[in-house]
């Protein structure tokens, strides 16, 4: 049993007793592991924890915390001690390979895959030991011994696949090649056994091992030639069949000679094989001698069978968390690991900067291109909007549907306004006529009598009436323009209001719709497809960028850095950064595709120009129509308000005009009476007429002279 280093580490200053006690428990379990798969797991876990430990504490040969490690050498039985933690790892690794080989040999071959896997795992353990640890620790860890073990394990793994191939009745040539590869592995093992250094290391067991390996070489060479003969039989090459079976028989005889002293199961297998090969040879020779008479070629003239290696040494990863479990020294991170982690973070940042520079350059080109095209994927195809009444218009239609008298009320209001307007205009016109008539009578009187000073008691009311009438006329003039504009606005909106208040089908029919040919529709669909590709390219690029950022943010290799030698840091960085290669490839493909997509979009946009112009014109008309209808609805309340204001204004003006008309009439009557008085007064001042010769009788005076008009002065 080894003196585990964990016991002595418990006394190192600065170490965690709990972590070291867990390591001691692993060590004790690894010393006497059960011979099953659980034993393999125990050894792998202890190996990993030792790897974590030696990367944090200087326990190597000649280092400050080195402690003696003792194990018993397998061949000599001597206790070997080294003050090096790696010796502990090497011994555990050797035992891992030995245990896998035992489990592979103990398996009942119910499933060939289980035995094959054990032997490949054993080969992997010995390979890792040979390639990563010094060979001077002990005799059983020399390069020759480890190479011997590796080939023995691979040979037995290939044997398992050979058994399965024969049970599955695979093609003869394939079985021959698999068997030939078994021979190749055992030949390599035999060369290692024949080495003088190996012979001195192994001692007495070297001869037994060599004899057994040679027996296997002859046996599996016989199996390979047996199946080559079966292939020749399938190809009807009867001469070759004879020589292959004869060679198989010769090699089997050599194997039988070397098998003396082997267990009865081996002897029985050899006898069974002899029965098969002997029977095949005798039958083939007899058939060729009496039936086919083909020449039997020399064996060395035939093509040699090339082995087909179907197995390999399965690699050992001492830091695989699935095997080692949690790192019990995870909280103990050396400063060198932190420094290395910072360097790795800079490498990640550099990678991100390079990628983002390419992305931003492409995005800038894409944005400029799309801005110049003025193509909005959401509006390039707006044909669907022509199939529906817009919500804003539906809202107005719904509002008018609950007010069915809208148009009638507006028309009636305007009619009332027009009536009042007409009445006011008639009253003011009558006042004007009265004033003009009075003025005309006044001029006639002055022409008849000359300029006569106004007599006392002349009516002053006409001047006030005239002044007030002028004021009303000015107001009426201004209101008349407003009234005209109001009527024009009503006539403009009345049709739209009737449309909005009618059936929705009529509203939809009143809205313009585009008419596209099949070619136009095809052009539009092609443009939409390419714009969708552009958006897909954008979305994929953003997604890949986000994935890269998240992956870089979560990428923490501190644990790996702790267990990696400083000289291997650069290599570790390169290996770790490879995980980003696939994302980088996807991004490169995305960026490279942009040029082709934009070229296709340019061609599609050229074809779309005419369709775009036609759609723009229809859309403009459609928007104008919608805005006009909405404006008509919104103008209704304003029209009603202004109509009411007009009615109120003219009603008030009508009352004032009616009163002014009464005053005008009264004033005109007073003025007329005043003029009659003046005329009579002037007539009285004139002398009586002189006698004259008889004249014809006078005619009857006209009515105007009867009233005292100005013509009376001429008489």
> What is the β-strand count?
2
CATH topology (fold) name of the largest domain: Butyryl-CoA Dehydrogenase, subunit A, domain 3
Distance N to C terminus: 174 Å
Task: Report helical residue fraction.
Answer: over 70%
Main sheet: which strands, in order across? Answer: 1-2
Order of helical and strand elements:
HHHEEHHHHHHHHHHHHHHHHHHH
Described by the principal axes of the CA atoms, the overall outline is: elongated
Alpha-carbon Rg, integer: 61 Å
Subcellular location: Cytoplasm; Endosome
Coiled coil: 421-451, 527-554
Keywords: Coiled coil, Cytoplasm, Endosome, Signal
Region (Disordered): 671-715
SSE arrangement:
Layout: H1 5-9, H2 17-31, H3 37-54, E1 69-72, E2 79-82, H4 85-106, H5 112-132, H6 143-167, H7 172-194, H8 196-202, H9 205-234, H10 238-258, H11 264-292, H12 321-324, H13 335-373, H14 391-401, H15 406-449, H16 461-500, H17 504-510, H18 518-554, H19 558-562, H20 569-577, H21 581-685, H22 703-706
Antiparallel strand pairs: 1-2
Helix pairs in contact: 2-3, 3-4, 4-5, 5-6, 6-7, 7-9, 9-10, 10-11, 13-18, 13-21, 15-16, 15-21, 16-21, 18-21
Task: Describe the protein.
The chain is mainly alpha-helical. It folds into 3 domains: 1-141, Serine Threonine Protein Phosphatase 5, Tetratricopeptide repeat (Alpha Horseshoe); 171-314, Serine Threonine Protein Phosphatase 5, Tetratricopeptide repeat (Alpha Horseshoe), CATH 1.25.40.280; 372-452 and 464-675, Butyryl-CoA Dehydrogenase, subunit A, domain 3. Helices cover 73% and strands 1% of the residues. It is built from 22 helices and 2 strands. The protein has helices at residues 5-9, 17-31, 37-54, 85-106, 112-132, 143-167, 172-194, 196-202, 205-234, 238-258, 264-292, 321-324, 335-373, 391-401, 406-449, 461-500, 504-510, 518-554, 558-562, 569-577, 581-685, 703-706; strands at 69-72, 79-82. It has a two-stranded antiparallel ribbon. Helix 3 (37-54) runs antiparallel to helix 4. The longest helix is centred in the last third of the chain and has 105 residues, at 581-685. The protein is elongated and about 195 Å long.
């Amino acid at each position: 049993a080894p003196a585990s280093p964990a016991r002595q580490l418990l006394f190192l200053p600065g170490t965690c007793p709990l972590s070291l006690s867990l390591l001691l428990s692993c060590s004790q379990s690894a010393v006497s592991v059960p011979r099953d798969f659980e034993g393999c797991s125990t050894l792998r876990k202890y190996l990993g924890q030792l790897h974590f430990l030696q990367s944090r504490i200087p326990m190597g040969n000649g280092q400050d915390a080195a402690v003696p490690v003792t194990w018993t050498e397998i061949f000599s039985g001597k206790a070997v001690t080294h003050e090096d933690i790696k010796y502990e790892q090497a011994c555990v690794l050797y035992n891992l390979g030995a245990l896998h080989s035992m489990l592979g040999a103990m398996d009942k071959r119910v499933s060939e895959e289980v035995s094959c896997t054990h032997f490949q795992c054993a080969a992997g353990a010995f390979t890792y030991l040979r390639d990563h640890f010094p060979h001077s620790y002990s005799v059983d860890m020399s390069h020759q011994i480890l190479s011997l073990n590796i080939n023995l394990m691979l040979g037995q793994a290939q044997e398992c696949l050979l058994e399965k191939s024969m049970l599955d009745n695979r093609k003869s040539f394939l079985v021959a090649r698999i068997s030939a590869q078994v021979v190749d592995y055992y030949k390599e093992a035999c060369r290692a056994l024949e080495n003088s250094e190996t012979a001195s290391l192994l001692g007495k067991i070297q001869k037994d091992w060599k004899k057994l390996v040679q027996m296997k070489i002859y046996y599996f060479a016989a199996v390979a030639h047996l199946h080559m003969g079966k292939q020749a039989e399938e190809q009807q090459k009867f001469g070759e069949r004879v020589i292959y079976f004869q060679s198989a028989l010769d090699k089997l005889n050599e194997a039988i000679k070397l098998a003396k002293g082997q267990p009865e199961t081996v002897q029985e297998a050899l006898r069974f094989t002899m029965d098969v090969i002997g029977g095949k040879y005798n039958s083939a020779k007899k058939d060729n001698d009496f039936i086919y008479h083909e020449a039997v070629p020399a064996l060395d003239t035939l093509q040699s069978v090339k082995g087909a290696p179907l197995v390999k040494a399965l690699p050992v990863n001492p830091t695989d968390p699935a095997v080692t479990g949690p790192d019990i020294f995870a909280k103990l991170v050396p400063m060198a690991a932190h420094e290395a982690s910072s360097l790795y973070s800079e490498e990640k940042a550099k990678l991100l900067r390079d990628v983002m520079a390419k992305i931003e350059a492409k995005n800038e080109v894409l944005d400029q291109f799309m801005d110049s095209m003025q193509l909005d994927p959401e509006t390039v195809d707006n044909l669907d909007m022509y199939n529906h009444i817009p919500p804003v218009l539906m809202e107005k239609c719904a509002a008018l549907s609950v007010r069915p008298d809208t148009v009638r009320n507006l028309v009636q209001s305007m009619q009332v306004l027009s009536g009042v307007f007409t009445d006011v205009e008639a009253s003011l016109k009558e006042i004007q006529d009265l004033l003009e008539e009075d003025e005309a009578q006044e001029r006639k009187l002055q022409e008849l009598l000359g300029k006569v000073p106004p007599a006392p008691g002349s009516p002053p009311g006409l001047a006030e009436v005239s002044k007030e009438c002028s004021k009303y006329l000015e107001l009426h003039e201004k209101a008349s323009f407003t009234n005209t504009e109001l009527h024009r606005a009503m006539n403009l909106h009345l049709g739209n209001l009737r449309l909005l208040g009618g059936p929705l089908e009529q509203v939809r029919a009143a809205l313009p719709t585009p008419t596209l040919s099949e070619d136009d529709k095809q052009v539009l669909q092609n443009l939409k497809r390419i714009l969708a590709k552009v958006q897909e390219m954008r979305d994929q690029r953003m997604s890949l960028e986000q994935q890269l950022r998240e992956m870089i943010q979560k990428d923490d290799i501190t644990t790996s850095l702790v267990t990696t030698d400083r000289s291997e840091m650069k290599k570790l960085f390169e290996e770790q950064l490879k995980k980003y290669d696939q994302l980088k490839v996807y991004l490169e493909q995305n960026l490279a595709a942009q040029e082709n997509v934009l070229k296709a979009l340019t061609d599609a946009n050229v074809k779309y120009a005419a369709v775009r112009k036609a759609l723009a014109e229809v859309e403009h008309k459609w928007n104008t129509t919608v805005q006009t209808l909405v404006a008509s609805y919104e103008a209704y309340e304003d029209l009603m308000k202004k109509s009411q204001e007009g009615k109120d204004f003219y009603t008030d003006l009508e009352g004032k005009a009616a009163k002014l008309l009464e005053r005008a009439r009264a004033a005109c009557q007073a003025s007329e009476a005043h003029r009659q008085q003046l005329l009579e007064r002037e007539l009285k001042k004139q002398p009586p007429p002189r006698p004259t010769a008889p004249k014809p009788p006078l005619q009857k005076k006209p009515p105007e002279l009867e009233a005292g008009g100005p013509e009376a002065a001429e008489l």
